[in-house]
Structures are given as structure tokens and as C-alpha cells.
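To: structure desk
From: M.T.
Subject: fold request, one chain
Message: Could you run this one when you get a chance? Sequence is below, nothing fancy, just the single chain.
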Amino acid sequence: MAAIYSGISLKLKSKKTSWEDKLKLAHFAWISHQCILPNKEQVLLDWARQSLVSFYKKKLELREDIVERLWVYIDNVLRSKKLQRLLKEGKTVTLQISLVKVINERIAEFSLLGSQRHVGAVLSCCQAILSTPALAVTYTARQELLVALLSQLCWAACRQPEAAAMVTPLFEVIHLALGQYLSVQQQQVNPRRAFGELTGHLLQPCLLLRHLLSAGTWAQAGPGQLRPALSRDLRSQLEAVLRGGAFQPELLASYKEELLDQPPPEDAKRGAMKSLLAPADTVIAGLADAGFCEPPLRAAVVAGSAALLYRLFLDAYLQEGTQLLCFQLLPRLFGCLRVARLPEGPESEPGLSTSDWTTELLAVEQLLTSVAGNNIYNIAADKIRHGEAQFRFYRRVAELLVRRPQASVPAWFRCLRALLSLNHLILEPDLDGLLAAAWVGADATEPRTRRAQEALLRTLFQTYARLRQLPRLLEGVLGVVCRPAAAPEAPRPPVLAAGPASALRDCLLDLPPSQILDAWALVLDTFQAAVLPRLRGDVDAALQALSLSALLHCLLVHAPCPGAGTPLPVVWRTRAAMDRMLRELVQPLLGLLPAPRGPGPELWLQKVSDAVLLLAQAWAQVDAAFALNCSRYGTPAPSAALEGEAPERSDLPPLLPGVEARRWRKIEKVAARFDSVGRHCLEQLYLQRMKRTLVQAAGSSPSKEALGTLRADAAYILASGRDSLARGTAAAPWDGQAGTVSAGTYPVAHWHLVVSNLTILAPYLGPGDVRDLAGVLLRTLPVNGAPDGPAEEGEPRVTLGKLSQAVLRSPVFPELQTLHTAFLTRLAQECAGVLRAGVRGDPGPLRQQLPWLFEEDPGDVAPWEAGLAKAGPEGSEPRGDVARNLLSLVQGGFPVRLEEGPLRRLLGLLDVVSALQLDSLAAPCHARYFLLLLSAALAPPGGSCTPSQALRFLTACYRLLGRLQRARSARAVLKVMYASDLCEIVLTSLLRACRGRRVDMDGDVDAAPWREFLQAAGTFLEQLLQALVQAKHSLVLNFGKILAFLSEAATGARPGQCSPPGRQLLLVSLTALCRALGPVVRERRPQPQAPEALPGLLRQAVLRTGEALQPWPARGPPPAAPLAAVSALLEADLGLHPETETETSQTPDGTRLSHPALYRTVYSQLLAELPALAQDAPAFGAATHFLALFVRAPKLHPTGEPVLDAVFHSVRRVLADPAVPAPAVQAIEPHLGALLARLLEAGSTEDFRAVLQCVLRGLDLRNAWSADRPAILSALTLIKLLLDCPVSEGQASLFWRASPQIITALTLQTREACQEQPAAVAVVESALDVLAALLRRGEGAIRSPHHVSLAFGVLLAVPLDRLAPPELGRVFPRAHSVLFAILQCHPKVMLKAIPSFLNCFHRLVLSVIREGRQRDKGGAEDLPGVLACARLVERMYSHLAARAEDFAVFSPFMVAQYVTEAQKVTLYPAVKGHLQEGIYLILDLCIEPDVQFLRASLPPGVRDGFKELHSDYVKYHRAKHEGERRYAV
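Reply: Done. C-alpha cells follow.
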């Protein structure tokens, strides 16, 4: 080999050697240890470098593949472990600058021309150089090379975004280059050079690349996808480069000189560094350069970059005294945006598109938010010191926004809100235009836009409410509303939709009564002066009247109600305003409504009737509330009736004072012509009169006149919307505002009115109305999970389906007996109608056989129900007839067949039945529903139904039949037919279905639908037999007939037994029979006169069940049905032979039992297959029940095999099996606990000692070191189960003596689990569960305080800050439980370790604050989990406050910790509310010196937060509780 490498340098330089041979020679020379050359690494690297440099300088001609291989060779050398080892050893390998320049040139070529020749290898070489510090010095020593490389890399990424194959390597190299440049930039001592490099070479490509990364250019899934973490890192690095180059601390003087016209100080002039010329203009010139990106992209890049640069500028230079400097850059950056250069006239040139406006306004919003968030604008300082420079700029922005409204862009509303938060005077001159564009004339339909509009209006109302200038704001609104419309009959958007109404409502709660009354008077004056005189016949005035009525309605309805403490002048003024409104506005408007003699001006008539009835309803509602709440309010002054009407005399309250009944009849005719606001408000007026009538008759029964009025009013309300509900299945969702009711939403509004007042209406409705109401309720329920209306994201809308579902689930519904009965009747009619439609052949005979399907009026008593009423010991017996009819129909082929459509409809109706409270059914209704459901279950599915649909239907039927059998009136069924006949009917039908393969599921008896059906059918049979036992109706006769039928079916005389489904069905039936008979036999055995027939029947049932289980499947995990059967069989067998449960019985091998061999076979199989059953909870439950029974029978135990040990180790195998997921373990824990309790009961103390030793071995640290996590989890689960098991005194003593060892093991295991990356959350969760249970159960048993204190170490080891939100949501409650267990069960230990306790609790509070902060993007989906944690924190605060004597000393420190952390973030309001309610309880413990101490010692920013917190505490919490204490004894 040495000969090969002799003269290697000459061979590499020789022209005679081919390039293929040179490359092979160089490769083998590099990797071979036999090639010995002085400085071999440098020689080989220089040869490859020189070859490439010569090629690119045209001094050498090479083929493309040779060039590629040379690049690959250099890459391999640079990345080789050999070179890395040599560099670590200190050997010098120099990388020549010429190679670096060639790399830069190739990347520049790729950037400019898009040429991808050798670019992959070049990027790989560059990555290898930059990632190796000893090689990267070539770039860092020549900074201009690094700047050029970084610039070309950024341009390459921006100009070649479609080069998918190059995305990952290119951005990896950019990441490395940015890192190297940042390290060089931070060490740069010449700020001018760093600034020049940035503005001359890096500013534009960095801004463009950051914009593309933020826009998600490479985020789409595919070969060109960029990792999100890398994208975030790149954006962060780019921002750091921009900040470090353009906004260095040394440049502050230059910016001041430029932006503030301040001359530099003398020492700066004499210093080494000369002041830069206009750094701000230089940066802005680079940003505004038109050529650095394509025109379609330039506007978006400039908009996003302006906001970014301003944020970076603030981060660098914002401090006390630089607010004006920070502002001065804002107008210059704003001038780069296109919106700043729009001409004054709105029509002078085509405007921007909606997408352009969105981009520009987002940038404006970010700029204004930066100003508001950093307190740059101080109103007083700007006015006094700076001549309102900032105010004038913000006014210019406000004029631009109001002059060019963009109500379809959410950012437009947010910009206005930001300006409003700075100073309301900025928008004050344009208030009318703002209200017109952003509220009255804005038709915001998109949900995001509506939310932005609502936020703006809420801020607007809150601002003017705080300034006590709400009338000024309403004056502007009224002026806009009363403006003439361009098109008089054009529809106007509602003035008070849900969002604006909510904002106004919240604002009214904080206003003094005088302000509200002033606003009220202002609206009344405007209505009277501007609208009422020109209202007759004027459509535009009618539209204005409706808008003003909606505004006045909101003011009236949501104003605070005067009470006993309201000053008398306010009450008098309120009374006068109410009288004035009725006399001068409502009554004149009612006088405008004509009798409908002709068609008339429909739009005018509709709007005027809507306006006047909205006002009338508001007046009546508010007048009633005021009169009830304030005794000094009095009654309205007598007012004259409308012109031409004679006053009527009546003691009952009128709809409205001064308006007589004849006028209302005319108004009703007008309102009935339109499904709109007026009709809805008229219904509310009638409802209001019903309420006042009931209040007037309180304490006594209503008079005959009052009763007639109540019935007439209730009938009118229901009849008013009957037609609209009949055609309202596609009604639009309603936002709940009375002023927004339209033809599309009227059915929902009417139905909302009815269902919200059912307790008032239902007692006074006639039978026909009640039936109609029940029909509407059933018809509007969403069936089969179908949506009940178009749902909009984030919009709480009322729909017909939601309202009806709320009624159905209401606990009040069963109390409304007439309506509940009518609904049940209507539901039964619908079910019967579907079944009648499926009758095949002549329905005549069926009327006698199935009378409940053909009842014309179910309210009448049917013949079979009459027999039910008479049935008893001496009554007639209708039971035989009903059973015979059903059995004959089933055996001859049930004449009702359900195809797919009717079956789906019936399934929907069954869902409705399942939502009812079936326990409240009366006996006749119970029996009717039982027979209907039984008929549906007996009806065979048609050919269009699949087996899965048929099984789902049968499962629903038998589940409901089982629920009926658990109900209060279950015995009513046994008065209709005998239990034995019912079992025969059901099983005959099901066996025929199995024979006809209608429910076969293609022979798959393990399919989930079939297992669910078997479970439902078995549960129904068990419930039926339990009802038979409880009723004690001829037990021997009924059980004998059932057993005879099953025996006959099992021996082959019945169809269906040959198929696997039929056999399983018989097995389930025999299982139910054994479970019902076994307890009866055990209870009656001690009685000397107990009949022998029942034990004989049980013996036969045991034999039949054993035969049905043969042959037992010897391999694989057995299914749930056979396991349940063999478990019931063993239990019944043990009940027949109780002596087999003792060691001293005379049955040496358990031969008295019926099937000992079967039991032993099942036992052996379960020991082997128990882990395989863990994911099937029903099968696992049956298996553990069998094992518990098997343990009770010592004579069944195999000789020489310890059954207790075998079963326990099988349980351990289940818990330690990695294939069993955590949810499955949680599902089977109750079964395991029951089995373990049985094992401990049967075992001795030594057995328990062996169990404890096994558990402690599972907690050995060697399991953590060997990553045997299943062994650890199984040990933790076993401890948790042991804690819940009843144990003997000796076993308990043994356990608690081992508890210190357990707690120590838990501490060590938790620490090991938390040190893993990522943390083993499953181990932490289980350890915390065990620790909490151990501390709770160990109250008084754990003697050493030290062992309890170890729990704090466990809690402190949990890495709450590294957990993802879902993981935190699981760990947090467990940590809270541990703390609560220490607090409640070990108070003495807690008193000695209060600092440790509070430290652990503070970590919990800190995690809630961290996860509950508002984020720019995302985070809201985790809010429910964070809220649950916040509630736990509030609860712990309450527990601490309850122990005031222990924690009072520490209360100021707890408050200081909370305020310090909460001040750093902006919390979600709901999270903040829970935390503040808890900290208020701790503030209750603080005395006045503590408050003074906090105010003096907290840092300035935190001190402000504490002052705000304490102010809210005094205003809301302390005042509330002081008020409560006044009434406490």
C-alpha cells in the first residue's frame, strides 16, 4: 500500500493523472493510515481548493461531474470525524480565503440567476465551515465576507422560495450565518461600521426574509416545509441583527440630533466617534426603496417592517425622558405606508383594495398599540412642553381613518380603539363621522369584524361613562340616526344588535341615575322634535323612529332599578319621565296606527308599529319593575284615553294606561300583518299583563274575570306565532335583542318568549293549545344530531332546536303536568304513526291485537288500560290476551316492517324518549310506552336496512325498555302481561332475527355493535326478572316457564340456536336467569318453610348454562358474554353448595359443584390471558369477578399451587404490560380493586407482607435507571388500590410500618422522573395520586413529621414550568390534592413547615399566571384547563384564609408574590377573576400596617399594581362583605 501513496503530491499535481484517479487517490489518502505526508490534511484540502479556484477563474477546464465531486470531497473532509478530532487536539488546519470567496460567489450566482449547479454541495460545505469554530474564523476574521455571505443567503431564500429541495439546507446555513454574525456584531467596537453593514447590505434582505417567514411562505406541508422551531429561531435572529445594527445604544445621540434637532454634547464632538448623519432617514430610505422586492409584495413588506422597526426602536431606546424621541420616529415610519400618502379627496383616485387596507391597517394598529403599550403619549406633557405635537399626528391619523371608513376590516375598528385609548379628544371632533361609520351605518356581518366593532363600542361607552359624558355621546348617535337617508326606503342595519346592546348595557351599570335620566330625556326630546312631527307617511322617518325606539328600549330596560335607598328626587324625576314618555310619545304614536281598511303603505306601517310597540312594551315592563321594587314610585298619573275612545272600567290591569281594548284590537290587526318587532312586543305586552294580574291576585285565587283574562292572554300569545312556527323549521338564529326581530328570526323570538314563560302560560292554556305546544316542541327538536340552524363561530345565537332541547332537559318540565302529559302523548302518537306506516297487509285485525298503535285519541282510556286498572288479585286478567296476541304475531311473522327511512325517524324519536325523565311516568303512560317500545323492538327491519342499523335500533329499544324497568312504575308492565310471557315474546323475536341473519354482522359476534346489543338485551332481561322478584308474582310459575322455554330453545326445538348469535343470545338469557334466581335462593335458604322448587329451578338453570358454555374455547382471550355467563354460573353454583366455600367441607375435590373442570379450565386460561382482556372493560370485569369467586372456593384450587400468589402476579402482569394504555388501566381499576380486596380478605398477614415486598421492589430506583417505567407504574397503581381495600388490623399495621419506605421511594421516583427529558409525566401523576391518598388515609397513622415533610420535596421536584398545557391540567389538580391533604390531615406538620407549604403553593399560582396570560396567537384552546386550575387556587386561598391564626403573619408576603408575578403579564379576565377572588381572602388577613408595608416596600411598577388591586378589594370585596355582616347575627 505504501507504494500507492509514494509521490502523492506529484500525482495530484500531474496533468497526466486523470481526474478520476486523482479524486480516488485523494480520497484514499485521506482515510488511510498508511499514507504519511507532512501536514497531509492541509495538503489535501489545499489541492481540492486550488482545483476549484482554478476552475472558476477559467485557468482549468473540468467536467461538471468532476467539479461536483470536488465539492463533495471538500465537504466530506470538512465534516469528517478525523478532522474534528485533529482540530480538538490543537492541530492547525487553515482554510484559505479563496475557497470562502468561491463559496460566496456560487451562492451569489444561485441568488441572482437561480442556477442550482453544485449549490447543494456548496451549501453543505458552507454549513460545515460555519458549524466548526476553528474553520468559521475565516469568516469572522474577515467580517465583510460574512456580511456578503449573509446578504446573498437571505436574497437567495427570498428570490427562490419555490426551490423546495434547497429549503432545509439553505435555512440551516442562514441560521448558522446569523449566529456567527450576531456574535461578531456584539463584539463590534465601531457602531458606525455595524450600522453601515446593516443599512448597506443586510437591511432589505433581512426585512424581506422576516416578512416571508412571518407570512408562512415555507409553512405548507410538503418537501419545502420549514420546521416551525427553526422558523421562530430565524425570526428572532433577524430581529436581533436589526436591533444590533440600527439601534445600538451608542447611536442614541445621533437619533436625538436628527429627530429632536439637539446638538451633540461637546465631549461627543471631541470623542473618537463622529456623529452619524441622519440614521433614521438612512433606515427609512432603505425601507422605502422601491426596488428591493417585487411590487405586489412591497406594500406588505413595508407595512410589516415599519411596525417591526418601531418596536425594535422602542426596545432599544425607550426610557424615562425619551418618550418624545420615540414618538418622533413614528410619523416618519407612518409616512412609509400607502395610507399616509392617499390624497385628501376620497374620490380623487381609485382606493386600495380590501386586502391592501387590511395589510396597511394592521401595520397602523401595531404602531398605535406600541405607543399605547409603552406609555409614550402623556397628554399633559405633550400639551405643555411639546405644543401638542403628538396630538396633531394622532388627529391626522384619526381623520384619515374616519374619512375613509373600512367597516369590513377588523383592524380598522382596532385602530380607532387604540386612538380612543390614547385620548378621547383625538376622536372627539370626528365623533359624528365615527359613530356613523363604525356603528350606525356599519353593517358588520363577519364574526371577527363584529367582535372588533363590539370592542370599539364597549371602549367608547366606558370612556364616556367614566367622563360622565354619556349624553354627549348619545347626542352624536341621535344626530347620525336622524340624518336623512340617501335612499329613503333602503333598509338600515339595526342600531342595537347584540354587541352594541351588550356594551351599552354594561356601561349603564356604572352610571349615576342622573346621567341615565339625562340620556333618557335627550332621546325623548330628539324623538319629539326631530321625528314625531314628520312621521306620518314618511318611510325614512319611520325607520328613524324604529332606531330611536330600540335605543330608548335599551336605556329603559337595562337602567338600574330604583329601590328603597334611592333618593326621593331621583324617584320623582323617574316617575315624571315615565309619565311624559307615555303621554307625549307612546300614546301619540299609537294614535298614528290606522285601522287596516286597505293595503296601505306596508313598509311605513310595519316600521311605525314596530317602533310604537317596542316603546310600549319597554314602558310596561319597566313600569312594572319599578312599581314592584320601589314603593315610592307609585302608580302612573291618570291620563286621558286616546281621542274618540270612551274609558273602560275594570279592576284588572290594562295592557297600557290610557289605551282601551278597542284600540288594542285594531293594533292587533296591524301587528298581525308582519312577523317583526311589533308582533313580538305585543306578545310581551300580553305576557306582562298576565304577570301583573297574577301579582294583583297574589295570596288568593284569581277572580272569574281575572281567570278569563289570563286564559285569553295566554291563548293570544300562543296563537300569535302559531302560523310562523308551522313554517319556521328553517328559521334564522336570533341574537336575543328585541329590536332585531325580523321575519326570519320571529319564529325563534316567539318560541323563546313561550318557553321562557312556560310556568306562567301553561296553567291557563286550553287542551287544544297544550296539544299544539307539545307538537311544536316535538317538531322543533333536532333529530339524529342534525344541526338546528346555521351556527356562526363565536356567536351565541338562539335557535329553535336549542330552546326545545333546554325545555326537554329542564327539571321543571315534568312539573308542568298538562304539558308534560301532552308531550308524552304526542311523542307516543309519532312513534305509533311510524309503526302503523310499516304495517304489511290488512291493518284491521291489528286494531284488536295491537290497540296501542291505533288509538285515535290517546287521552281516552283504552280497553287494555281499563283492564290494567282492574288487574289485581280479584280483577279480570287482560295479561293473557295481550301476551297471546304478541306471541302469535311474532311466531307468524310480525306484520310491521321498518325500512331505512322510518327506522331512522324512529331512532330520532327514541333519542327524544331517552332524554325524558322516565321515572316520573304514571302507570298507564309507563305501560303504553313499554308496549310501544316492545312493538318497535319486535318489528323486523326491512331489506334496505343494514345489520349495523338494525342492531343500533334494537340496542336503543332495549336500553329504553331496561330504563323503564328501573323506573318507579315498573310493576305496571307485569299487570299487562306475565314476565314469563314477556321473556318468551322477546326471545322468540330475537332468535328469529338471528335465524334470518338480520342482525348477524356477517357472522362477527365480536363486533362492537353486536356486543352493545347483547349487553342492552341482557340488562333488560335482568331488570325484568328483578322486577318479577320484587313483585313476588308467582315466582315458581314464571321462572319455571322461562326455564322451560330456554331449555326447549337450547335443545333444538326453537329456530336460531345453531347460529353463533343465537347461541350467545341464549347464553345471555341463561345468565340473567341465574343472576336473578341465585340471590332469591340464598335469601330463602335459612327459612325452614322455604320451597324446594326454586333451588331445583336454579339447579336446572346451572346445568343448562354449563351445557351452553360447552365446549369452552381453550385458546385466546374469551369474549365478554361467555365470561359473564361462567361468572354467574359459578356464583349460582356456590349459592347452591355453600359448603364448598370452606376448607372443612366433606367434598375433597369440589365434586358437589356442577362443573368443576370448567371452572378450573377458565381459571387457568384467565391467569394467562388476563392482560389481553384489559382493553375490554366488560370482559375484564367479568374475568375479575370470576377470579374473586374462584378464590372463595378452596376445594376448586389446584393442588400445590398457591392461588392467591398466582392471581396477584397475574394482576401485576396486567398493570406492567406496556400494551395496556393508561385510559384502559383507569377503566379497569375498580375491577382490580374488588379482586384485590377479595385476595386480601382470603389471605393471611404473611401473604400481605409478600404483596408489600413485591410492591416495594417495583419502586426500586433501579427500575428508573433501567427505564422500566411499566414496573414503576404498576407498583404505584397497586399501592393506590391497596389504600382503598379493607384490611385486617394486622395487615393495616404492617402497611403503615412500611409507609415511610413508600414515601421515600415516591420522593426518589418523582425526582428521577422529573430529570428525564421530557419528564415522565405518567410516573409523576401516579406518584402524586398515591402520595395524596397516602396522606389522607394516613391521618394519625403516619407518626413521623419528617415523612410527611418529604411530600414538599416531591412537589418541588415537579417541573411545572416545562409541562405542556394538557399535561399541566393533569398534574396541577394532583399537586393541589397533596397540599390539601397536608393542610387538612396533618395540621401540626404544616404549622412547622409553613414556608415550604407556601413555596409549593406559590409554584402552583405561578403556573396558573404563566398559562393564563393572553397571547398574540393561540392559547385560547387551553383556557378551560387553566380556568379549572385557577378555581383550585381560589379554593386553596379560601382554605388558608379560614386558618387565619396560622397564616396571618405570612399574608403580606403572599400578596406581594402574587402582585409581582401578575404584574408581568396580561391575564385572561376569567383567570384573573378567580385569582383575585382568592387573593382578596388573603387581603382580609392583612392589617393596616401590612398594607402600608406593601405600599412602601414593593418596587415602583409592582406598587401600582398593588394599589389597583387594593382599590378593587376595598370597592368590591370588602364593601360587599361588610354589607353582608350587617345582616349577620
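Reply (cont.): The chain has a mean pLDDT of 83. Let me know if you need anything else for the meeting.
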